[in-house]
Amino acid sequence: MIYLFLQGEGVMRIASGVSRWTMLHFGIALAALLLAEVLLVFGVADPLAALRAPSTLMGVHLITIGWLSLLMFGALFQFIPVIANTSLYSQKLPLYGLICIGGGLLAMLVGFFEMGQVSHFAVCLPVGGTLVLIGFTLGGINLAITLWRVRPVPLHAKFVVFALVFLFLTALLGISFALVFSLPISTPEFLKVLLGRGLSLHMAAGLGGWFMLTVMGVSYRLLSMFMLAPDEPRLTTHAALILTVAGLALYVVGGVISLWVGFDPWLLDGAASLLIALGLASYLADIIEFYRSRKRQHLELNSITAAAALLLISLSLVLGVIALALGELGRLAPAIGYLLVFGGLTGLGLGQLYKIIPFLTWLEVFGAKLGRGPVPRVQDLVNEPRAKPGFVLYFAASTLAAIALAIAAYDSSRTVTAVVFRVLVVLQLVGSGMVVVEHWRARHPDPNLKPSPMKIPGMPSGIKPPLSPAAAKSTTSLPAGGSVAAHVAPQTSPHSSHAAPHSAAPHTTQGN
Q: Is residue 502 classed as helix, strand or coil in its secondary structure?
C-alpha cells in the first residue's frame, strides 16, 4: 500500500510546490485504516468488548493515530500554506515527525498486546506514546511557525491552531494512562486518579478537539473552493470557533482539575455541552450556506460524500446528547463512537482524498506540460460512476454496523448481533477497499491522458467549442504567484477540455 502511493512520487519528486511527504502520510494512513478494519473482521478488535481491552485499544489507536492523525497532518502540510497563503516552514520536519509517529505507534501496539502481562515489552507503551508525542510536536511546530509568519492568523487557520493544542492534551493524557498501565507501582498518584473519567476526557480532547476542530477549519476552505461558494467569515463562523473551543476547554481542562481537586463537575459538563452544541450548530449553519449559495450546481462526488459524512457526524453528536440525557451514554458509547469515527470522520476523509489525491497528482504529472499542448482536467483523473458504488457500500455498511452495535448493547446473548456486525464490517472493508483502489488509480494516471470532450447542451458530442481568450491564455501560462486557494476551484469546472486547472501550489521551502 505505502509503496503504491510512493511509486507515483517519482522517488519523491516535488512538482509545483506540492508538499514532499503528503502522499506518504496518505499511503500509511490508508494502510492503517485497512489494517484496523481487518482486525475488526477477525474479531481481534471488538467494540462489543470492554473499551480498555488490549486488543480493542490496538484497533482504536490504529484508527485514531495511524489513520486519522496521519491523514490530518498530511492534509495540513499541504493546505495550511493554502489557507495562510504562504510556504510550509520545513520540508524535513514532516518526515521526522512521521518516523516518530509511525515508530511510536508500532511500539504502542506491542505494548497493548503485552499489557497486563509480566513482560519486558510492557515498557513499549509509554515509550511509544512518548515517540508519538514527539512526532506530534514536530508537526505542530512546523505548522505553528508557518502560521506565525502570516500574523494575523486567518480565521479558518485558528481552528487548526486550537486543534493542535487539544492534540497535545490528548497525547499527554494518553502517556499518563500508558504509565499507569505499564508501570503502576512507579506512577505518581496524581496520574493514577486520571483513570476512569480521564478516559472520557482523553477521547473528548482527541475526537472533539483535535479531529473535529481540524475538520471544521479545513472544510471551511475546501468546501468553498470545490463548490465555488463564498467563504468570507460570517458571525456564525466566529461563533463556531469561540463556542466550540470554549466548550471543549471547559470540559477537558475542567474535568482534569475536578479529578485532582475532587469535586463533581456536573455543572461544568452541562455548560460545556451547551457551548459545544451551539458552536457545532453555528458551523453546520455555515456549511448549509455553502451548499445553498454555491455557484457549481452539479455536485462532484467528494462534495456529496462530505454532505453524507457531516450528516453522520451531526447525527452521532445529537445521539450522544440524547443518550447522555437518558443516562444511556455508557451503554451506547461504542455504537455512537463507531458512527462518528467510521461513518463520519473516516467517510469524510475517504471522500476528500478522492479530490485531493487527483489534484496533487495532476500538479506533479501534468503541471509541467502546461503550454505544450492540451492537458486533462483534474476531473479526468477520476471515474465517478465507477467509484460511487464503493462509497455507497462503505457509508451503508458503517452506518448499519453502528446500528448493530446499538442493538447489541441491549442484547444479553449478543450471538446474532455479533454475527451481523461482523458481516457488516466485512462489507465495510470491501467498500473502503474499493475506494482505496480508486485513490490508487487517480495516483497512477496515464501520463499521455488526453482531455475529455466538453459536453454542452444542444451541441453534438465530439465538437469542441472555440476557446475564450481567457481560457486560451490559461493553456499557456500560470498566474504568477498564484496559490491553490485562489485557483483550485476552476480546475474541475466542465469548461474547455483544453484548459488546464488554474493551479499554482504555494511554493515550499526545500531547506530547513
A: coil
- Cell reading at 341: 469515527
Q: Cα–Cα distance between 111 and 331 in angstroms, integer?
A: 27
Q: What is the DSSP letter of 452?
A: P
Residue 455, φ and ψ in degrees, nearest 5:
-110, 120
Residues 207-254: tens digit of each pLDDT: 999 999 999 998 888 888 878 888 788 999 999 999 999 999 999 999
3-state secondary structure 455-498: CCCCCCCCCCCCCCHHHHHHCCCCCCCCCHHHHCHHHHCCCCCC
- Return the sign of the alpha-carbon dihedral for residues 474, 477, 480, 483: positive
pLDDT tens track for 379-401 = 899 999 999 999 999 999 999 99
pTM: 0.83
List Cβ neighbours of 388 (8 Å cut-off, separation of 6 or more): 301
CB 94 within 8 A of CB 142: yes
Q: What angle do CA 161, 164, 167 make, to 5 degrees?
A: 155
DSSP 38-106: HHHHTTSS-TTS-TT-HHHHHHHHIIIIIIIIHHHHHHHHHHHHHHHTS--S-SSHHHHHHHHHHHHHH
d(CA 492, CA 303): 12
Non-local (6+) Cβ contacts of 391 within 8 A are 301, 305, 347, 350, 351, 431, 435
Q: Provide the grid cell at 288.
A: 448549509
Place of cell 485562489: 486
Rounded Cα–Cα distance for residues 283 and 237 (Å): 6
Q: Cis bond leading into 152, ω under 30°?
A: yes
| Residue owning grid cell 462532484 | 300
Range 130-133 contact pairs with CB under 8 angstroms and sequence separation of 24 or more: 130/104, 130/175, 131/100, 131/101, 131/103, 131/104, 131/107, 132/65, 132/100, 132/101, 132/104, 132/105, 132/108, 132/171, 132/174, 133/104, 133/168, 133/171, 133/172, 133/175
CB 252 within 8 A of CB 273: no
Q: For the CA atoms of the chain, what is the radius of gyration?
A: 23
The residues spanned by each domain of the chain are 331-447
Cell representation of residue 159 = 481552528
Q: How confident is the model at residue 61 (pLDDT cuts 50, 70, 90)?
A: very high
